[in-house]
Every structure is written in structure tokens, then in C-alpha cells.
Write a structure and sequence with these properties.
The complex is a heterodimer of chains A (319) and B (508).
Chain A: H1 2-21, H2 28-53, H3 61-78, H4 83-106, H5 112-130, E1 136-137, H6 145-152, E2 154-155, E3 159-160, H7 161-179, H8 181-191, H9 193-198, H10 203-229, E4 231-232, H11 241-251, H12 263-282, H13 290-318
Antiparallel strand pairs in A: 1-4, 2-3
Helix pairs in contact in A: 1-12, 2-7, 2-10, 2-11, 2-12, 3-4, 3-5, 3-10, 4-5, 4-10, 7-8, 8-10, 11-12
Chain B: E1 6-15, E2 18-28, E3 33-37, H1 44-51, E4 59-64, E5 67-69, H2 74-79, E6 82-85, H3 97-101, E7 108-109, E8 114-115, H4 117-130, H5 146-159, E9 164-168, H6 176-191, E10 195-199, H7 203-209, E11 212-217, E12 220-226, H8 232-239, E13 256-266, E14 275-281, E15 284-289, H9 295-302, E16 310-315, E17 318-320, H10 325-330, E18 333-336, H11 340-344, H12 351-356, E19 364-365, E20 368-369, H13 371-384, H14 401-413, E21 419-423, H15 431-446, E22 450-454, H16 458-464, E23 467-472, E24 475-480, H17 487-494
The chains are: A mainly alpha (319), B alpha/beta (508).
């Protein structure tokens, strides 16, 4: 909990300063835009967080967005599939890709970094090939208005749907990670896979399922992203998004060594990231420095965390 | 008369709570092969680590060529010509043979100070020839067999002008042919004037190659045998004879023999050896043997943790599928593993989370865990086992070794064990906690559970076992009834000798 409090403080201080310098930060359009982005990024960051908690990593997320996005646009506008079927496929494909990652990692014993790095390259290439290097969009095609409303509508006219979906998913995943048997197994496997196996738990299954679950969440986020950008350029749609997710999870208290992390932490991490982007815009910092600012903040966050942990340890030894 | 090459005088070494070595002396002459024998924990390794510069002695002196020397670290030992070949080989298997031999002292060449590869390979070849190792110095070490890797270590020792080579259990992972070749090499080294200190549990090898045998017991010199006195029996009689108080109390538990049956069980460590035995309810069956006898491997196979194990385990007539850890737990067969931190506990988690991990379904409704129910069960175990912890929400990493072990026990005790297997249950645990763990084992047996206990501590084996199974190199050499449980009998069986007192491990 301490970790989350630390980063939450950072988030609130950042919001406070920005609001003081530029009151537009608190304007309704800015806040809804922010909420929309937090929703989009938060959903798949939770999936990535689960994978990181088991001690793994998934680098293929961004490329999966491109592949699923291109296919979704083609299914709806070129092949005229009914929208429920297309949506199901857009979630199903990333789920199957997650399953492939899972099998490579748990059955064939390939390191998660390597397996998903290959995925990153393979799926990006596939997306470009399938789209014939063309940008795919939804244009003025008809017949999937319901899906469109679900993805980009506003609940009560204010709350962006991605944010609403994130809240629902976060609540479910909070129970899954922090209150369910499965969640306990995830944390246990990440801390010590051998001891967990000795307690009679099928650790391969637990690890594998985290990649599949991440696939489902990536699929849902993928649909929302596709409608958010409205046009999917296969060569750069979703580029680096896996890194945003990893950074948000780490900033939110997940350890890349596994066994540590919380849903709330991941959410705060994601929010901090989006607010930072927003701050860069609002404060007139050259947008070219976008990545530099974010990288610096992650570094400071991790350093500060290290510092406080060391100090806590020293206190414990002294007492 | 010339002083001996090496003399260790009145060496003493204490660790917190134990005296590891007490007034131990040892001499080694030039070109002599000295075998060092003793039970597990007799002090052989500690003594050799002092010689190799890993530990510093608290008392006593080490003399080389009659001059007192101070060996502060491994480099000092090397400079004195003392090389240590550990049981776990220290080769870097991603490098070639020559790079291993010259690791850390590579000759450099040219303005960029690059490694002079020509020179190290040219310099390595003669050592390989001398050892009769028929591989190129360019071969990567991971392409070599274990025996050949060992030769690379010996070549490294020779290249350092080693005059004394310490070999700790060098044959434990070698085949018969490889063992013979190594023994021959030891003789050749001795002819070339290199002294060898040879630690081995295999008395046949000791008889074969030693000029002299020194035996340690309880961290003291137990005696020495010259070459013509060396026999199996003489060595064993020196190794045993510790002053062991016999605490054994006849248990009054109702015993039903043959409740647990293990048949033809093979572990992946010893795939060619199979193990069969019976154990009864109400019984504590001890498993004795020297380190590496394959006892841990067998119990891991029993509870399904060895994926490649074969054989049959049945409890009360019901057969258990092998290779399925869940199935064993469902049947109530639990293992308290040897490596508490690595296999028994998730030390970063709390006492509560560790206690309930294998039986979480009990605490959940609709997949959601009820933490209060968890706390109740964890608190019960904390109370009944007297676990010293600030509470059930304390992380296990902050508890002492004895209390950590109790958490492992509590985890299984809360699940009504039918068979409890304890692997080295009291290693590294203080005396008070030890007594409590014995008490817990007794009361479990009295409640009708089958208890299997692996222990390398002779005192413990004699202290708690109702019967003792003795293993040697992956096989059961015999089972001793309570009346025949003596240190001498166990030791004879542990070194692989048949004795008449031993009974069969099972009846059909």
C-alpha cells in the first residue's frame, strides 16, 4: 500500500502544480480527454501487469494492436461482417496470440522476453502484409454503429466509454488479483515458483493463463484504440504501447522480478503517464521532449522507491 | 628428517552454536595420497575449507614445508600450491578448455592487451597430455563429460604448480570406468610427487588408492590407518562410536504395517535404481544414508514432484498417479522439503498466506478468499506450534529458521496429514525448536499418520525412528528394526555393505 500512496502523492502534486499554472487542466474537455486516454491505456496495462506479476513480460502488445486493428477495420468495412462477430474475432485473435505466447513460454521453455519479442516482429509484419501497407479506417461505412457507440460513446453524455470499461474491468480484476484463489496463485508463482509447485499448484497453468488473460484485455483495448484513432496505419499503430504499459506497471509498484504489484498501483501508474503527456502539452514543453519527460519521471519514481525501501530496511535493522 | 609437506596442528573452528573442529591435526607427505573419512558433519569439509583459504581457523596452525603459513583466502592457498577441486565443479562451460585453465591469469599481448590465445593453448596442451585427457584445448567445456571437466580442473591445478590437490567426493557423479581412470590418475599424480587429499564416502575407492586414511568424528581426530591396515571394517569402526545418548522412547502408537506401499520407484537422479518399501500408520520410518544417497530424490518422486519418475505408490490400497503433485496432496501425502526457503515457503508472503496456500479452496466461496477464515486457521497453528511471530500477517522472511520450519509444518498440519514426509526437518534449527518438532512428529504418529523422516544426523535418526531404512547410491541397502538400530549397523549399510541384521524393506 505504501508504494501506491507514494505514487498517488506524486500524481496529485503533479495535477496540483499543473492546474495552478494552467487552469485549463481542470476544464471538462481536458478532463474527459484525459479519462478517455487513461481508459484506453489502463485496460491493457492491467493485463501486462498480471504477466509482470508472474515474473514474465509481454512485448508483443503494440503489434497485436496493429494486427487486430487492421483486421477489425477490414472485417467491418471490406468483408461486411456483422459487428458482434467482428468484435468477437478482434478479441479472440489477441487471446489466441496470448495462448501461443503462453505455450512457447511454459511448454517450450522460451524466455518470455524472447518469445514475445518475436511476436512483436511477427505480428507487426503480418499487420502490414494483410493491410497491403494501406492505412485502414472505418470511414463512412455503416452497420456497426452500436459497436462504435460502445467504443467511443459517452456514458451520461460525459464519461468516455473506455474509462467506464476500465473501471468495470479494474473492479473485476481487483477481486481476481487481490481476493481470489487465482490471484493468490499469481502472486505466489511470481515470488517463488518452486515453492508454489511444492504446494501442489500447477504453476505452468497459472503462468500460461496470465498471458491468455493479457491477450483478452489487449483484444478489448485493441477495439477501443482502433475506433479512437479511427484509422489504423499498420506500420505505426500501437507502436511502443507495450512499453507504456510496462512503465505504468513498474511505476505503480510491480516488480519485474515478479510477485509484487496491485491493480490500484497499475491504475495510478497509467494515470500518471497520461497526466504527464497532458502536462507536456499544456505547459508548452516541446512535444519532441515527450519521451524524455516520461523517462525521467519513471527513473525518478524508481529511484525514490529504492531510496525509501533502503531507508526502511536500515530502520528495521537498527530497531 | 625433512618436515612433512603439510602439517595442520591442533586446528579448532567454532560456528555459532557448534564446535565444528576441535584440536584436529593432519599431516600430508610429498606425493602421499591421504584419504579423509568421516560421517556427515564430522568436519571434513570445514577442515579442507580452512586449508583452501575459505575459512580461517580459530585455533591451531598450518605449516607448509615446516613453516607456519597464514591462508587468508583462496589466492593464498593457490600460491602455497594448494588446489581444491570441489564436488560441484567450478568450470565455466561456455569457454574452451584453455581459457578455463588460464582463467584470471591470461597472458596478454599487443598494444590492446588482448589475450594471447596462441600461448594459452600451447601451454595447456602439455597438461592435457600429462593427464591423458584426449581432447583439444579448443573444445568448449560444455561439450565434455563430467569426468573430463574434472580433468580440466585438475589441469588448472597442475598449471598453478599445485603440490597438494584436495578432491572432495570426486567420483560422486562419475561412471565406473571414469572412476577407475580417476583413481589411476591419483596414483600417477602421487608418483609425480603431487600429494592428494581424497575425501570420499566410497570406502572401496579409499582402500584402493590411499596410502593412509585419516578419520574424523564429531570434529575430532578419530584415528589413522596405514595402508596395510585399511579395511572397510576398520574405517567404519573409527567413523562410528560417537557418544550418542539414546533418547529413543518406545512409542505406544497403534501400528498398522504396510499402509503405505512404495514399489519400484525410480527417480530421474538414479534412473537405473529402483526403490521399494513399506511404512505403517503410527510409525516413524527413518531414512539414513550419506549425503547424495538419493533419499530426497525418492521422496520428491513419491509426492509427484519428479516429472520423469516411474513406479507405484499406494496408500491404504489406493494407487496414486505418479508425477502429479496435486494428487499426492489430495490423498494427504505431504512433504516438508529440505530447502525450506527455496521449496517449502514463499518467504515474501505472510504466515497466513503460506499456511493456506495448498488448501485455498477451503477458505473460498465463489473463488473469493475469506481472509478471516484464513486468519483463524493460521492463528490456530501459530498457537499450537508455538510459532514466535508478531502475528499471522508477518512476513515469513522475518522469522527465525526454527519458526519458519514450524510454518511449513503448520501448513500441512492444518490439512490433516495421512503421510508426512520430513526431509532434514531440523537442519539449522536450535535445540528447543528441534525437541518440539520431534514432539509434533510423535503426536502425529500417535494419531495414525505415517511419518517418513530423512535425516543425515545420526543422533536424530537413532533418536526418533521406529525403524530405519538405509540407502546407498540410490538403492535401499537394508532396513533395521529398532533393536538393530545402532550407529555401526547404519554406517555399514550407508557405505553399501550388506549386514545380517538388515531386513527386507517390504513384504508382498
Amino acid at each position: 500500500m505504501k508504494k501506491e500512496l507514494g505514487i498517488l502523492t506524486l500524481l496529485l502534486v503533479l495535477c496540483g502544480i499543473t492546474a495552478a499554472i494552467n487552469p485549463r487542466f481542470l476544464s471538462v474537455p481536458n478532463l474527459t480527454n484525459l479519462a478517455n486516454l487513461i481508459g484506453l491505456f489502463g485496460i491493457f496495462s492491467i493485463g501486462l501487469g498480471l504477466v509482470i506479476i508472474t515474473g514474465g513480460i509481454d512485448l508483443s502488445v503494440g503489434s497485436v494492436f496493429a494486427l487486430a486493428g487492421v483486421l477489425l477495420a477490414m472485417m467491418l468495412t471490406e468483408w461486411n461482417w456483422p459487428w458482434p462477430l467482428a468484435a468477437l474475432a478482434a478479441i479472440g485473435i489477441p487471446t489466441v496470440l496470448g495462448l501461443i505466447n503462453a505455450l512457447l513460454i511454459t511448454r517450450l521453455k522460451i524466455q518470455p522476453f524472447v518469445a514475445t519479442l518475436c511476436g512483436l516482429m511477427i505480428y507487426r509484419g503480418l499487420a502490414r502484409f494483410i493491410a497491403g501497407e494501406d492505412t485502414k479506417g472505418f470511414g463512412n461505412a455503416e452497420g456497426f454503429e452500436t459497436l462504435q457507440t460502445l467504443a467511443k460513446g459517452r456514458l451520461f453524455g460525459v464519461l468516455p466509454m473506455p474509462f467506464v470499461i476500465l473501471v468495470v474491468i479494474a473492479i473485476i480484476m481487483w477481486f481476481v488479483l487481490h481476493r481470489s484463489i487465482y490471484g493468490r496463485y499469481l502472486l505466489a508463482v511470481g515470488r517463488n515458483e518452486e515453492s508454489t509447485r511444492f504446494s501442489g499448484i500447477n504453476t505452468r497453468w497459472v503462468v500460461a493463463s496470465s498471458y491468455v488473460l493479457a491477450g483478452v484485455l489487449t483484444g478489448i483495448a485493441g477495439i477501443l484504440f482502433a475506433f479512437y484513432t479511427n484509422s489504423i496505419s499498420p506500420s505505426n499503430h500501437g507502436n511502443f504501447y507495450e512499453l507504456y504499459g510496462i512503465a505504468a506497471a513498474v511505476l505503480g509498484g510491480c516488480s519485474l522480478r515478479g510477485g509484487e504489484g496491485s491493480i490500484i498501483g497499475i491504475l495510478i501508474g497509467t494515470a500518471l503517464f497520461q497526466v504527464l503527456q497532458n502536462v507536456v502539452n499544456l505547459l508548452g514543453i516541446p512535444s519532441a521532449l515527450n519521451f524524455t519527460v516520461m523517462g525521467t519521471v519513471v527513473l525518478i519514481g524508481v529511484l525514490a522507491d529504492q531510496f525509501f525501501q533502503e531507508r526502511a530496511k536500515r530502520k528495521l535493522v537498527k530497531s | 628428517m625433512n618436515p612433512p609437506l603439510l602439517e595442520m596442528r591442533a586446528i579448532g573452528k567454532r560456528f555459532p552454536g557448534v564446535v565444528a573442529l576441535d584440536n584436529v591435526s593432519l599431516t600430508v607427505g610429498k606425493g602421499e595420497v591421504l584419504a579423509l573419512c568421516g560421517e556427515n558433519g564430522a568436519g571434513k569439509s570445514t577442515l579442507m575449507k580452512i586449508l583452501g583459504g575459505v575459512y580461517q581457523p580459530d585455533d591451531g596452525q598450518v605449516l607448509v614445508d615446516g613453516r607456519p603459513v597464514k591462508i587468508d583466502n583462496v589466492t593464498d592457498a593457490m600460491k602455497l600450491g594448494i588446489a581444491f577441486i570441489h564436488q560441484e565443479l567450478n568450470v565455466l562451460d561456455n569457454l574452451d578448455v584453455a581459457s578455463n585453465v588460464f582463467l584470471g591469469r591470461e597472458p596478454l599481448i599487443g598494444p590492446f592487451k588482448l589475450i594471447d590465445r596462441k600461448k594459452i593453448h600451447a601451454d595447456t596442451e602439455p597438461y592435457l597430455k600429462r593427464l591423458g585427457l584426449d581432447v583439444s584445448s579448443w573444445t568448449r567445456v560444455d561439450q565434455l563429460s563430467i569426468a573430463q571437466q574434472q580433468m580440466v580442473e585438475i589441469a588448472k591445478a597442475l598449471s598453478l604448480n599445485a603440490r597438494i590437490i584436495i578432491m572432495d567426493e570426486p567420483t560422486s557423479s562419475l561412471t565406473l570406468v571414469e572412476t577407475e581412470r580417476l583413481l589411476k590418475l591419483v596414483c600417477e599424480l602421487s608418483e609425480q610427487g603431487v600429494s592428494v587429499i581424497y575425501i570420499s564416502h566410497r570406502l572401496g575407492e579409499v582402500e584402493h588408492c590411499a596410502d593412509r586414511v585419516a578419520v574424523l568424528r564429531d570434529g575430532k581426530n578419530a584415528g589413522e590407518l596405514t595402508q596395510n591396515e585399511v579395511t572397510h571394517d576398520c574405517i567404519v569402526s573409527l567413523m562410528v562410536g560417537r557418544d550418542i545418548k539414546n533418547f529413543y522412547v518406545e512409542s505406544n502408537a497403534q501400528k498398522t504395517p504396510g499402509h503405505l506401499k512404495v514399489r519400484n520407484l525410480r527417480s530421474s537422479r538414479y534412473p537405473a535404481r529402483q526403490v521399494s518399501f513399506d511404512a505403517g500408520r503410527g510409525e516413524i520410518l527413518g531414512f539414513a544414508g550419506l549425503v547424495g544417497a538419493g533419499r530426497s530424490e525418492i521422496v520428491k518422486a513419491m509426492v509427484g514432484l519428479d516429472r520423469f519418475a516411474t513406479g507405484e505408490v499406494s496408500l491404504g490400497g489406493e494407487t496414486l498417479p505418479v508425477g502429479n503433485p496435486r494428487a499426492a496432496i489430495v490423498k494427504g501425502i505431504y512433504l516438508v522439503p529440505e530447502d525450506r526457503r527455496g521449496e517449502g515457503l514463499i518467504t515474501g508472503m505472510t504466515v497466513r498466506e503460506n499456511t493456506t496456500l495448498p488448501s485455498l479452496e477451503r477458505f473460498a466461496s465463489l473463488f473469493l478468499i475469506n481472509r478471516n477464515r484464513e486468519r483463524k486457521v493460521a492463528d490456530e497453528q501459530i498457537q499450537s506450534l508455538k510459532i514466535k511471530t508478531p502475528g499471522c500477517e508477518a512476513r515469513v522472511v522475518n522469522l527465525s529458521g526454527g519458526n519458519q520450519q514450524k510454518v511449513v509444518l503448520g501448513k500441512w498440519l492444518s490439512m490433516d496429514p495421512k503421510v508426512m514426509i520430513l526431509d532434514e526437518p531440523t537442519r539449522g534449527i536450535d535445540v528447543g525448536a528441534k525437541a518440539e518438532i520431534y514432539r509434533i512428529m510423535r503426536s502425529l504418529a500417535a494419531q495414525g499418520a505415517v511419518i517418513l523422516m530423512i535425516s543425515s544426523d545420526m543422533e536424530e535418526v537413532l533418536h526418533v525412528s521406529d525403524r530405519v531404512v538405509v540407502m546407498h547410491e540410490g538403492q535401499i541397502t537394508g532396513v533395521l528394526e529398532r533393536a538393530d538400530c545402532t550407529e555401526e549397523n547404519i554406517m555399514q549399510l550407508a557405505v553399501g555393505k550388506k549386514i545380517t541384521a538388515a531386513k527386507a524393506a517390504f513384504t508382498n
